[in-house]
USP domain-containing protein (Noctiluca scintillans), 299 residues
Amino acid sequence: TSPMSLERALEEHARDVQGSICRRSYRLPPVLWLNLDRFAYDVEAKRGRKRRVRLSFPEVLNTWMLMPPDVDWLKKLRECASKRTELHAALERNQAELNEHSKEPGLERFATLVEEQETLYKKLADVQQAIEQEGAQQELLYQLEAVIVHRGWVDSGHYYAYVRPPSAVPGWCCLNDAKVEFCSHKDMLRVAEGDPGVDEGDPGVVEDPVAEMSQASPMEPGSAPESGQASGPAPQAVSRLQEDETDEAERAAEATVSTSWVAPPEALPSISAAAVLGPVVRVRAAALASLGASDPEGW
């Protein structure tokens, strides 16, 4: 299956916001933080689990969906986005019919479907180009500069980051405590977005089609899970140890919890999207954002 896109997740998140009293901003901030809610509570298992649904994100993000709905020039963008949704649905229907006819004789209908598919792709490309042009004109574009990922369980694990180096250096830097390595953009995406099929057969996965977007909500210091009070391990702890032994896939799972954009081309403002899942991550993300805003070449 195709991964959920960051643009679609943002569109759905913005569309779900309701309220009678609100504060509207007509200017995007120089640094924008996005929190990917990668954790959920499994009622049956009575424990937290990580969402590892694949989420794709572009190098350049168009944030038109974050603008107030009553902005005059936004009408054209919303019409284009609505048309894009219709075209995606038409493409999926057409592809499903193509798959069926590929198994049966009838070249005439198959050729017609292929032609329709090509037409739909062209229309979709035109709509996407219109959205990008309008976004550039209204200064809504941001360039990806960093990604923070988490490896481990819900209540324990390790954070590290992928950061784009200065423009003269190709690829990305993987900052893992004192260990710093260079990697390609493809390698960064493979870890940050997730490999296809990584969740297959993994009982620790919460199947959620949407990576929920939410405001930053750091955990309170010292809010660790409660443990058994007896001298030996509590029944829940024993059960957890058994699961640890049989669920290696979840133990080693990596999930993107943040992305950040810094040092974009001159035509684009800078952006940093950082998941704030704890005080330590908050400090690190703030440092990344500060460097990007004040010293674009300071990486």
User: Anything to note?
Assistant: Residues 196-252, 261-299 have pLDDT under 50 and may be disordered. Residues 151 and 254 are 4 Å apart (CA to CA). Residues 28-62+140-223+230-294 form one domain. The longest helix spans residues 107-137.
